[in-house]
């Protein structure tokens, strides 16, 4: 076990979207650090199969069917976790989906689904878990998965990008609320760079062919340049243990996006993208 992550040993981790990708990697790595792990996902078959593998390796794991877009499902998850394993040490609000399409084109139900999973999933995760964590008064962690996209802008991914900006803002304010309460709860924002997961396999696209083209570009980029979900977890978990707010899988990309964002805001420039990205979108 990496010494850095010793603070998690014997604790309880709850990870949403743990049936695949980054969440799966975090669940496997948390179990290897000696944590008991709750894997929450809508894809129960995948979550149960990961939980089974974790149990076969000698750790404790429980898969719980949870649709994070439903606030009551997160209440049930918190209750089941507490009954089964007791106080929560690490909550990672990680479940998220990609949706591609011009924003006027996406059906209302697709907008609702995207925002309910990506934004309300994390909000209600905190609402459901934080009271017991505060009451326990123990050192604990809440991490919300946003994205380097939470520092940027991207047409066609408008619904996703705005949800990631929202999660970054939510995490910043939540961090300060824990300070106000003098709570021993570390809040972190996880900003992954490219990770080769199924996120674009499962994504929905609007009708316009530009959307499908953009999805292909993103899918191929993750396949070619993405690290694995487990590698991402190996980069994320030590930074959480260290108590960092800004948690990156690719610190250099995060720094570049943050610098661009700061520059864009301080100069109050019109929204823009690098020419090669615009060309990929068929602009210019
Ligand atoms: N892959 C990347 O390059 C990347 C980059 C930046 C941010 N992220 C973020 O990382 C997080 C994890 O994504 P990933 O890339 O591992 O994707 P993934 O698709 O491989 O895994 C996401 C998991 O969430 C689950 N899920 C979907 N809807 C759900 C719901 N309503 N309730 C519960 N679970 C649900 C899926 O079944 C899946 O198992 C997301 O928040 C994503 O936005 C990913």
What does this structure look like?
- The chain has 284 residues and is of the alpha/beta class.
- The chain has one domain (7-250, 271-276): Rossmann fold.
- It contains nine helices and nine strands.
- The strands form two sheets. Strands 3-2-1-4-6-7-9 form a seven-stranded parallel β-sheet, with helices on both faces.
- Helix 1 crosses helix 7, helix 3 runs parallel beside helix 4 (108-136) and helix 4 (108-136) packs parallel to helix 5 (158-180).
- It is globular and about 55 Å long.
- Nicotinamide-adenine-dinucleotide binds at residues 16-17, 19-23, 41-43, 46, 66-69, 94-97, 117, 145, 147, 192, 194-195, 197-199, 202, 222, 226, 229.
What does this entry show, briefly?
By secondary structure, the chain is of the alpha/beta class.
- In the predicted model, the low-confidence regions spanning at least 5 consecutive residues are none
The CATH homologous superfamily corresponds to: NAD(P)-binding Rossmann-like Domain
The total number of structural domains is 1
Level-1 CATH class name: Alpha Beta
- Main sheet: strands, sense, barrel: 7 strands, parallel
Q: Which strand order spans the largest sheet, edge to edge or round the barrel? A: 3-2-1-4-6-7-9
CATH architecture: 3-Layer(aba) Sandwich
Number of strand elements: 9
Bound molecules: nicotinamide-adenine-dinucleotide
List the helices and strands and how they pair.
Elements: E1 12-16, H1 21-32, E2 36-41, H2 44-56, E3 61-65, H3 71-85, E4 90-93, E5 99-100, H4 108-136, E6 140-145, H5 158-180, E7 185-191, E8 204-205, H6 209-225, H7 229-242, E9 246-248, H8 251-267, H9 275-280
Parallel strand pairs: 1-2, 1-4, 2-3, 4-6, 5-8, 6-7, 7-9
Helix pairs in contact: 1-2, 1-7, 3-4, 4-5
The chain binds nicotinamide-adenine-dinucleotide.
């Amino acid at each position: 076990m990496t010494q850095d992550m010793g603070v998690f040993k014997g604790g309880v981790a709850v990870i949403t979207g743990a049936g695949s990708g980054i969440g799966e990697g975090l669940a496997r790595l948390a179990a290897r650090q000696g944590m008991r792990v709750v894997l929450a996902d809508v894809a129960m078959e995948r979550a149960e199969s990961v939980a089974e593998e974790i149990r076969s390796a000698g750790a404790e794991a429980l898969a719980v069917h949870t649709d994070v877009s439903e606030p009551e499902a997160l209440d049930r998850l918190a209750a089941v976790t507490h009954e089964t394993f007791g106080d929560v040490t690490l909550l990672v609000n990680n479940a998220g989906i990609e949706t591609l399409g011009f924003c006027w084109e996406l059906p209302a139900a697709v907008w609702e689904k995207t925002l309910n999973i990506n934004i309300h999933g994390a909000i209600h995760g905190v609402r459901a878990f934080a009271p017991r964590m505060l009451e326990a008064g123990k050192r604990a962690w809440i991490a919300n998965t946003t994205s380097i996209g939470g520092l940027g802008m991207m047409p066609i991914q408008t619904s996703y990008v705005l949800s990631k900006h929202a999660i970054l803002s939510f995490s910043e304010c939540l961090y300060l609320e824990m300070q106000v309460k003098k709570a021993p709860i570390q809040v972190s924002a996880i900003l992954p760079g490219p990770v080769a997961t199924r996120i674009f396999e499962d994504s929905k696209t609007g009708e316009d062919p530009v959307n499908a083209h953009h999805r292909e570009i993103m899918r191929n980029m993750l396949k070619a340049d993405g690290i694995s979900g487990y590698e991402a977890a190996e980069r994320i978990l030590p930074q959480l243990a260290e108590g960092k707010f800004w948690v990156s899988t690719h610190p250099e990309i995060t720094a570049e996006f943050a610098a661009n964002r700061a520059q864009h805001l301080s100069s109050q420039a019109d929204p823009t993208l690098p020419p090669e990205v615009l060309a990929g979108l068929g602009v210019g």
